Amino acid sequence: MRKDFLSLNWDILLTYLQKFIRTESAKDYVSKYEPSFSLQKALILKEESNYLLNLFNSGIDIEIPNLPSIRNILDTAEKRGLLLPKELSKICLFIKFIRINRKLLVNSPFGVLVELSAPLEETFERLELIFNLETGDFSDKASYSLYLIRKKIQNLKDELFTKLEKLIEHYTKLGFLQEPIYLVKEGRYVLPVKPEFKNKIKGIVHGFSQSGATVFVEPFSIVVLTNELNELLWEEEREINRLLREITNELLREKERFTQLERELVRLDVAQARVRLGKLYNGILPEFTDSERLEIEEGVHPLLYLRALEGGGTFPVANNFYLTRALLITGPNLGGKTVSLKTIGLYVLMAYGGFLLPAKRAKIPFLQDVLVDIGDDQNLMIGESSFSAHLRNLLRIVKRANEKSLVLLDEPGRGTNPDEGSALVCAIIERLLKRGAKLVVTTHSQAIKGFLSNSEGALIGTMEFDHRTHQPTYRLLLGYWGDSHALKLAKKLGFDEEILKRAEELLENQEYYQWQKRYLEEIEKIEQMKKELSEKTRQLELEREKIRKLKEKLQEELNRAIEKIYTDWQKEFQELINKISEEKSIKKAREEFRNFLRERTIKFEEGPQFSVGERVRIGSTAREGEILAIKENIAIVACGPFKLEIPLCELKKIGQKAETVTSSKNLREKKEETSFKQEKLNLIGETVESALNILEKKINECFLRGVNRLLVIHGHGTGRLRSSIREYLSKHPLIESIEDAPPSAGGSGATLVSLAEAIKNTTY
Fold first, then answer.
1. I need a surface site. Which of 91, 223, 239, 663 has the fewest CB within 10 A?
2. Is 405 helix (H, G, I), strand (E, B) or coil?
3. pLDDT by residue (tens digit) across 21-34?
4. What long-range pairs does 434-438 form, CB within 8 A, spacing at least 24?
5. CA distance 170 to 182
6. What DSSP string describes 634-695?
7. Model's pTM, two decimal places?
C-alpha cells in the first residue's frame, strides 16, 4: 500500500470496512483496496453506494451469505476431479442468492450479476430437485440406480434391526448384556456383553471397553446382513461420486462465468460494506465538481468518530474546510492541526473510493493524486536522519506534484535550523503553487506563515485555544492567525512559574508577543459574538417556525369554515332547485333565488359606495350597465334591454355616470354588446344515469353563472342516450327550449339547449 495512504490511516479505515464484508474474495480484495483517481470510476462507485443507500433508507437489506472463494473451490475441484457435497452447496448458495435478489439487482448498478447467472438457471433448478443445500445430500430422485440402492439399503436395515431387537430381548432376559442396546463399532453392529458371558453368545469379538467391564460381540446371525449392508453403502457412495463427477464437469465448463460472477459479487459486497460503515457515522455522498474549490461542511475525522462510537468516548468536533489553492493551518500543539490535515486528505481518498463521508455536505474537485508528508521517516537501519528522510520525501512530492495533485505538508522544515528549514520550505511551496497543486500546510514557523499568507488564493486558519482554561477546543477558525501557545501548554503540563517567567524574559520580541496577546483576545471576543449571533439566529428560526405552523393552522380553520359555508349553500341551493321542479314556477323561483343571494351575501370588508346613474361592471364579466335604483344591498341595473337585480358586492365602479337620456342608437349598440354565453358538455361514452347526473350539475352551474345556451353532445349510437337526455331536458323547469344543433356543431348528434328568459334576466 502506498506510503501516502498509510500516512492518512487508510489501512485502519479498511480494517473497519472488513467487519462488514461477507465473502472471502471480497476480504482479499479489501485488504489491497486503494482509491483509483479516475473520475469515471469514482462516479460508478458513487452510483453503487447511492443505490444501496436508498435501499437501506427504505428498510431493504440485501443479505449476502458467508461464502468462500468460488474460484478457489473450482480450482481445487479441477485438480481433484470432483466437487465435494459441501463445496457444491456453497456454489448452489451463490446462485440461489442471485435468484432471490433478482428484482433488486436487475435494474441496478449490479445488474451484470443477473445477466451472467441466467445461463446457470437451468442447472441450478435441476440441482435443487436432486440436491439438498442444507444437508449436502442427494435425494433418491438423483438417479434411478441411487433410488434402487437406497431402497435395498432400507429393506436390509429393517431386517437387520428386527433381528437385533430380538437378540437384545433374548439376551437381556438371560442377563448376558450390560445394557439392552446395540452399538456400532467400525461399521459393525455389536452387543455390550458382560465378560463372563462372552462365550455364551456365538459371534465375533470387536474389543473391550476401557474398564474391561464390557465385551463388544457381533452375533454370527447378523454378520452376513451387515456385510451386505456395507456393500450397498459402498455402492451408494460410488453412485454419489459418479453424480458429483458429472456435476463437477458441467460446472467446470462454466468456470470463467463463475469467475466473472464472483468479481461482480465482490463489487456488491464491498459497496454494501461501504454503505453499512457510512451509516454508522450518518455519512453523505460527496459531490464531484469541476470547480477548483474543495468544500467540506461540518466534517469530522471518521476514525475518531468510530473510535468514540466503540469506546463511548467524546465525539470529535465538526469543522468546515475550504481549499482553493492553499490552506495554512496554525495553532497550538495538541490542538488538532494534524487531525484537520488528515481529515481533508482522508476525505479525498474516501470520495474517490466510493465511501460515504461523515459531513453535512462535501464538494470534491477532480484530482489525480494525494501526496503526503507527515511524521518522522527516520531509518536507523540505513543510517538516515529524520531531516534527510524528510527532505527525500519532499523531493518525491516536488517531482510528482501537478495541477491535479493535493499536497499535505505537516510541519515542513522540521528537524533542522529553523531559518534554513523555513526558507527551503517556502521555496518548495512556491514551486508547488506555480505547478497548480493544492496545498494544505500546518506550521509553527512565522516565516512560513508570512510567506504563505501573502500568496494569492491562500486561506489562513487556526485551531482555537481557550485562554481561560488553557485548553484547545479543536475548532478550526478560518481567517485568523494562531500561535503555538508553548508557554501555556508548558504551564498546563506542570512546569514551575520560575522557568515560565524566565522563558518570557528571554523572548526576543516581547512587544510582538504583547500585540499577539491582544490580537488573540480580540479574536476570542469576535468568536463569542459569533456564537451569540448564531444563538439569536436559531431563536429567530424557532419563532419563525412557530409563526408558520400557526399560519397553517389558521389557514386550515379558514378553509374548513369556507368549506362548511359552501356545503350548506350547496345543500340549500339543491333544495331550491328541487322546489322549482315541484312548483314549475319560474317567477317564484326567481324571487326565491334573489332572497337566497340576498341572505347569503357576506361582507368581509366595507365595499365601495354606489349612486343612482353610475356606470358599473357586473362581477368578473364584461357586461356593463347603469344603476337605476338601490334597495338595501341590491341594485337594479339597466344592462342593454334588461333590468337586472344584482347584489352590490358583485358590482365594480367604472368611474363615469351615464347620460340621462339614451338614444335609440346607443340602445342598439348596447344590445349588440350583450352577446349570448354558450358552453359545451360532452356526454359521449357515459351511461344514461351518469350522463343525467352530470347534465343536472351543469345546468345548475349555468344557472349560477348566467350562461344562455348549452350545447350537449351525446352522439347518435343506439339513440337511447339522446332520447333520455332530450326527455329529461323537455321536463326541466330551467330550460326554455331544445333543438338539434347546427350541422357545424354536430347536427342531431348534439342538442342545443336554451335557458329560460327569466333566468337570463337574473344573472348572478
1. 663
2. strand
3. 999 999 999 999 99
4. 435/401, 435/402, 435/403, 435/405, 436/402, 436/403, 437/401, 437/402, 437/403, 437/405, 437/406, 437/407, 438/292, 438/294, 438/323, 438/324, 438/325, 438/326, 438/365, 438/367, 438/405, 438/406, 438/407
5. 13
6. EEEEEETTEEEEEEGGGEEEEEEEPPSS--HHHHHHHHHH-PPPEEEEE-TT--HHHHHHHH
7. 0.62
Q: What is the DSSP string of 206-269?
A: EEE-TTSS-EEEEEGGGHHHHHHHHHHHHHHHHHHHHHHHHHHHHHHTTHHHHHHHHHHHHHHH
Residue 691 near residue 725 (C-beta atoms within 8 A): yes
Q: Decide if 288 contacts 312 (C-beta within 8 A).
A: no
SS3 of residue 65 by DSSP: coil
Query: Nearest Cα to 123, choosing from 80, 83, 157?
Result: 83
Torsion 288-11-344-311 (CA) sign: positive
CB-neighbour burial class of residue 762 (10 A; exposed 0-12, middle 13-18, buried 19+): buried
Closest listed residue to residue 487, CA positions, set 479, 477, 495? 495
CA distance 760 to 682: 23
Contact in structure between 334 and 472 (CB atoms under 8 Å): yes
Three-class DSSP category at 192: strand
Q: Is 119 helix (H, G, I), strand (E, B) or coil?
A: helix
CA–CA distances in Å: residue 128 to residues 89, 141, 259, 606, 613:
10, 11, 22, 84, 96
Task: Give the whole-angstrom CA distance, residue 527 versus residue 661.
Answer: 81
For residue 295, which amino acid is it?
Answer: E
- Count other C-beta atoms under 10 Å from residue 275's C-beta: 25
Secondary structure of residue 750 in the 3-state scheme: strand
- What is the number of residues in the chain? 764
In the chain, the largest separation of any two C-alpha atoms, in whole Å, equals 150
* 277 within 8 A of 143, measured Cβ to Cβ: no
**182: helix, strand or coil:** coil
Q: Rounded to an integer, what distance in angstroms lies between the CA atom of residue 762 and that of residue 594? A: 8
Mean pLDDT by groups of 10 residues along the chain of 764 residues: 90 95 94 90 94 92 91 92 91 91 91 91 88 87 92 94 94 92 92 91 91 92 93 94 93 93 95 95 93 92 92 86 92 83 95 95 94 68 62 90 94 78 89 93 85 85 72 79 62 71 62 58 73 84 87 85 79 70 57 59 55 78 78 78 73 59 41 57 86 83 74 83 86 82 81 65 36
- The one-letter amino acid code at 460 reads I
Query: In this structure, what C-alpha cell is assigned to residue 757?
Result: 328568459
- The helix or strand, by DSSP H or E, that contains position 134, with its residue range, turns out to be none
User: Cell numbers 453499512 label which residue?
Assistant: 276
Taking the C-alpha atoms of residue 497 and residue 492, their distance in angstroms, rounded to an integer, is 11
